[in-house]
Amino acid sequence: MNIPVSQIAQLINAKIDGDPTIIINGFAPIDSAGQGSITFLSNDKYEHFIYESKASAVLVSDDFAPKNTITPVLLRVKDVYTTLSFLLDLMNSQNNHPKGIEPQSFVGEGTLIEEDENTYIGAFSYISSNCKIGKNVKIYPQVFIGEGCSIGEGTILYSGAKVYKNCVIGQKCIIHSGAIIGSDGFGFAPQPDGSYQKIPQTGNVVLKDFVEVGANTTIDRATIQSTIINNGVKLDNLIQIAHNVEVGQNTVIAAQAGIAGSTKIGQNNVIGGQVGIVGHIQLADGVQVGAQSGVAKSIEEPKSKWFGSPAMEAKKAMRLNAILKNLEQFTIKINFLDKKIKDLSNQNEH
Hints:
This protein is α/β, with parallel strands linked by helices. The protein has two domains: 3-93, 3-Layer(aba) Sandwich (Udp-n-acetylmuramoylalanyl-d-glutamate--2,6- Diaminopimelate Ligase, Chain: A, domain 1), CATH 3.40.1390; 100-315, UDP N-Acetylglucosamine Acyltransferase, domain 1 (3 Solenoid). It is 17% helix and 28% strand. The strands form six sheets. A twelve-stranded mixed β-sheet has the order 8-11-14-17-20-25-28-31-34-37-39-40, with helices on one face. It has a ten-stranded parallel β-sheet with strand order 9-12-15-18-21-26-29-32-35-38, with no helix packed on it. Strands 10-13-16-19-24-27-30-33-36 form a nine-stranded parallel β-sheet, with no helix packed on it. 33% of the residues are buried.
């Protein structure tokens, strides 16, 4: 990558403050960027780095007003994060990606691969019978795809991902290493003797378009119908989604969250890391749940914020936390006042 600032500005429709002829050769974080690098500033708490930065150019918002002298060229854009994403994706698309079907891979009988010039099926990957693989799909080494699965156009499955039988993955999804799509749901019927009888999990998992599944995340197949992950959902690493769950479109879920069976998550939810959500409840659209919260009941108010365990509305939870921080002092004062009252009572009796 060797490209002048002026050309980058043209690609992203940016206004340039500085020398447009400076050459950019790569990206770097704002606190460690050097000459030739382009970096970005999207959070005010990192603003102090821009005044010390040795970067050649910085992406900033349209309304950024420097408080001190700045050396790098400024590229002013409407949305810094979205612009950065576009540039990184553009750079990544220019990298050499593997192509072709490697001879050590296995493709089962009746499987249809819509092979094109960008198709890749890596060595030691196993595609079972009666599957359908769309155009421009990339299946990296040691991926397993079970019988009767469908993989949509432009989807990427990284090494070690597993997709159990009859699951459906939409277009332009990304499945990271170690992810398991369609493992059995946790369904067992308690018996009179204290043992558990396994309930067969006969459904599947449906991932719609533009879904990303992080490394070592598991999505269980439904007992009868489908566990559904809707368009644009982004799942971090190490997430557990149980059988019969439905996650609404454009919801994001951070690492180590767990969602129990048959829960319905609305659209555009933001669920923090290590959140636990019980089964058979519903979350409205636009709900935000803070990290390490435990959601034990349905959340019916759209665009509400929740925090704590058990989760409660964020403002109420913060007030409660403020009280808890001072609980020891409150206890001392109450004990002191209680003693005073008892002393006064004793004096009156005499």
